[in-house]
Design a protein that fits this description.
Keywords: Signal. This is DUF4136 domain-containing protein. The chain has three helices and ten strands, in the order βββαβαβββββαβ. It is an alpha/beta fold. The chain has two domains: about 170 residues, Rossmann fold (3-Layer(aba) Sandwich), CATH 3.40.50; about 30 residues, no CATH class. The relative contact order is 0.26.
């Protein structure tokens, strides 16, 4: 059985926005599915609490699918995988991880943080107002009242993230296996966002790239 390490560049502000899916698109670059039975999860966040919360959520979601996963907190201490390690450091880390039996890396990066404005079209709605008869207050009918609702402009913040899976056993050629693009609008709940992001990512990886 192969083993895999999942390293995530995660963000402390990644949070839930209604019921809209975060995952916008994904591509199985390798065009194959591989079986992995050991996953190391790394969340790239300056906030160690957020990092641990995200990693533990991923561990639980993979475990629910019968796949072993482990938090990276005791394995990789650096808080920033991409910014604090130079090319030599990355290669040394890759070699060490391969020697320890890991074969893959997933890195999630923030691509952009943008302000957006959506125009929600107005319209008409009808309410039926009951009519009273005499002092006994009995309803004997209803007449329609139409209401007009003007257009509304919704303004908020949208975060675009990208998660990439690499096969770290292939050091001398392109080793990108899978890539997914996610968008999060209007942050509100850190816990809810972590749960939702983790579930969508795990589900899509199992669907397209990771065999059980």
């Amino acid at each position: 059985m192969k083993k895999i390490i999942l390293i995530f560049g995660f963000l402390s502000f990644l949070i839930i926005s209604c019921a809209t899916p975060y995952l916008q698109s994904s591509t199985n670059v390798s065009k194959v599915k591989k079986k992995y039975d050991k996953i190391l999860i790394f969340a790239n966040s300056k906030d160690k609490t957020t990092r641990l919360q995200f990693e533990n959520q991923m561990v639980q979601d993979f475990a629910a699918q019968g796949i072993k996963a482990f938090s990276s907190m005791a394995v990789i201490q650096t808080n920033s995988f991409s910014k604090q390690l130079n090319e030599k450091d990355v290669e040394e880390l890759r070699a060490k991880l391969v020697a320890d039996g890991y074969t893959g890396v997933i890195i999630t990066n923030l691509l952009s943080k943008d302000q957006y404005s959506d125009v929600v079209s107005g319209g008409t709605s009808t309410a039926y107002v009951p009519m009273r008869y005499g002092r006994f207050g009995r309803y004997y009918g209803a007449y329609p009242v139409n209401y007009w609702e003007p257009d509304q402009v919704q303004i908020g913040t949208e975060y675009t993230l990208e998660s990439c899976l690499y096969d770290i056993t292939e050091s001398d050629k392109d080793n990108l296996q899978w890539v997914g693009r996610f968008q999060v609008k209007d942050p509100s709940s850190l816990t809810g966002s972590i749960e939702k992001y983790s579930k969508e990512l795990v589900d899509q990886l199992l669907l397209e790239n990771i065999a059980q």
